[in-house]
Amino acid sequence: MTTAKPLTISILIPTYNRPHQMAEAIASIAAQDLALVGEVLVGDDSSTPEFRAANEAVIAASPIAHLIRYLPNTPAKGNYPNQWFLGTTARCEYVLILHDDDHLRPGGLSTLATACENEQDPRVKIWFGRYFVIDERAWINWEETAFHNKRFGRNGPGAARPVSQWCLTEALPPNSFLVAKDTYTRFMEGSKDGNVGDWGFAVRLANSGAWGRLIAEDVSTYRVQKGSVTTAGRGLDAHRAYELADELVVPEDVIPQKRRRFSVVAPVATIRYARDGERIKAWKCFFSPYWTWQQRLSVRCCVTLLMLLTPRMLWTWALRYRN
The whole model's pTM is what? Predict the structure, then answer.
């Protein structure tokens, strides 16, 4: 996609109570080609004045402090509404999300920008690469990195495909992709997606008919640690992930593949609906084609069925007890 003027990017950092890791994220931006960085927006959802003061100190000490706009949120917006807010506030034509605990790899921003500038296919609306999985200490976990590349279909050569195809392997990463600001704000809808907003964005983008390009290079790191969405609290909002998977539009002959891919989510979503008191949705999910026959013959299915048959009065008590 040849641009008439040099491409500049707004880098968006949503942060929550991680000043020391946000410092790493900002340092990774400082190591990029700064001619590409139009601004860095930090949306701070931190819970205490002490964390916010620490974040401001990190920004003030950064060599790219002059590029950073600090935007504290009172009250806190939540992760994906915060990202959407930053997107709407961005001044550049293109945006890149960088989570506060992740890094851009050296040259990663240039790799994405070059791919965007050289793009010849007008259908391509998003550019993304591979990432290294790192732990709390920022050490690379090579085994997990290989697993992620294989699991999410990013271990092949670079290619441009419909985003719907990339969604069948959940290939779009949760951050460190390059996309036009208008595209991002149009398809990222915030709080309605719970903590699977990146998946919601990918599905809505796919359903618009957009294509995405994988660059077969490592452009970022992705940290897996305690306190992340995938390990903290109630975990992923499986019920919303299931609904979004069902909304994903694919060709008729690919529907069985889609159902196989997301069959792992359906039992979890059924239990989540039941646990949250949405029994009709739980039954609909239970009888959906996303449950495989192997799952229906499992002990887990029997336990799920028992939960669904539990009298409403006991569920009312359980929900009151939970709260």
Answer: 0.91
Pairwise CA distance, residues 60 & 55, whole Å? 9
pLDDT in tens, 302-314: 989 988 988 766 6
pLDDT of residue 322: 52
Q: Which fold has domain 9-223?
A: Spore Coat Polysaccharide Biosynthesis Protein SpsA; Chain A (3.90.550)
- The residues pairing with 124 across neighbouring beta strands, listed in sequence order, are 211
Among 83, 75, 74, 70, smallest CA distance to 26 is for: 70
Question: Which pLDDT tens digit goes with each residue over 6-50?
Answer: 899 999 999 999 999 999 999 999 999 999 999 999 999 998 999
Between β-strands 37-44 and 9-15, what pairing exists: parallel, antiparallel or unpaired?
A: parallel
Residue with tokens 């979503």: 269
276-312 CB burial, b ≥16 within 10 A, e <16: eeeeebbeebbeeebbeeeeeeeeebeebeebbeeee
Give the start-to-end residue ranges of the domains of the chain. 9-223, 238-322
